[in-house]
Amino acid sequence: MKMYVSILLVSFLLSGCAKREIIDQIKIVQSLGFDVQGDTFKVSASYASYQKKKRLRLMIAEAQTFSGIWIPHNKQSDDHIVSGQVRTLVISEKFARKSIQDLASSLLRDPVMSNNATIVISKQEVNTIMSETLNNPPFDLTDQINQNMKNGNTPFSNVHLVLDQYYGEGQDVYLPILNQDKNGLIRLDGVGVFKEDKLCLLLNDKESFILKLLKDKTKTMTGAYEFLGRENEPIYFKILHGKKNITNEQNDSVVISLKLHIQLRELPKTKSSVSKSDLLELKHDIEQHFTSGISDMLKKFQMNAVDPIGFGEIYRSNNRNWNEQEYKTKTYPNIKFEVNTEINISHSGVGIGAE
Fold first, then answer.
1. pLDDT digit string (tens) for 228-247?
2. How many whole angstroms separate alpha carbon 127 and alpha carbon 27?
3. Pairing mode of beta strands 234-250, 174-180
């Protein structure tokens, strides 16, 4: 009985120590946007407004230090600002090209920011993107990004992965890119790859999808793809699932094996979905397309001295005498890649390819 009384007493004491925060008396920040002008940080913060007709509102402030961004925001607010529910951080391309060192350092020290939050690059000024999100439901931008990572052609990324890429050895940071079209709609538009702390290389949608296939876990190796075949007619298919294997058998050689199960959705008019010879020809064309696409992208990475795939990390795990600087300057530029792609076509009950 005494034990139960003691437990009850401790529970009361712990609850008494907790700080009460009433939902309509705090500002719960959902998205943060970072831009830079000279030596000044320009920060936009969207928050849910439960007492106003407009569900989302925006605060804009400037600060000389990255950690000091909350000081001017607090001066604007009549309620306590809470950042524990931030799910999306948007940085401008200008910010990304200057440096993400302060951002990474701040996220590493922040005990409140979720590791599951996503970081994206905006081709427009951050304030433009953040203002547009006010017209949509709360967390709509976050849901859009996550949906494209799960079901679309955007490679997976979050704060945890970015910090691992930034502070780890043998790999470079990559972030999804947002773009606003002429109709004002926000969409995912490729990936930005960093060299150390600065944005170095922009990948288009197809290159971003190839990066997704080489980086994502098996369960998210899905998406839709389209390219022009040998008759210069479009071939459209959906990737149902797949698997990959990357081996560094020798210091100067890497073998990449990619196996994809696809479902054809649109074929050239000259091809039949029930003709085995036509399907075999399409299978060969798709395999060649991915093999050459992967090879070209890897050469681009080597030319720009970036490694978003993390070949350096694989190399480091197999070599005791790892030296990152030596790997970057001597080993990585001279690696020879062997790419093997295998396609299994499933269409209207017809399966073509190795099982």
1. 877 788 889 999 888 999 99
2. 19
3. unpaired
Nearest-angstrom CA–CA distance, 175 and 154: 9
**Per-residue pLDDT tens over the stretch 2-14:** 555 455 554 555 5
Q: What are phi and psi of 195, to 5 degrees?
A: -110, 110
Predicted structure pTM score: 0.86
Tokens of 136: 């949509």
CA–CA distance, 319 with 323 (Å, rounded to integer): 9
Torsion of CA 182, 183, 186, 192, to 10 degrees: -10
DSSP for 173-203, please give it. Answer: -EEEEEEE-TTS-EEEEEEEEEETTEEEEEE
> Count of H helices and E strands in the chain?
11, 14
Q: Copy the structure tokens of residue 85.
A: 């529910």
Domains of the chain in sequence order: 23-203 (no CATH), 204-355 (3.30.300.210)
> Which H or E element spans position 86?
none
pLDDT of 172 > 70? The answer is: yes
Lowest-confidence range among 55-64, 70-79, 99-108? Answer: 70-79
Element (H, E) at 311: helix 311-318
Token duo for residue 309: 């795939």
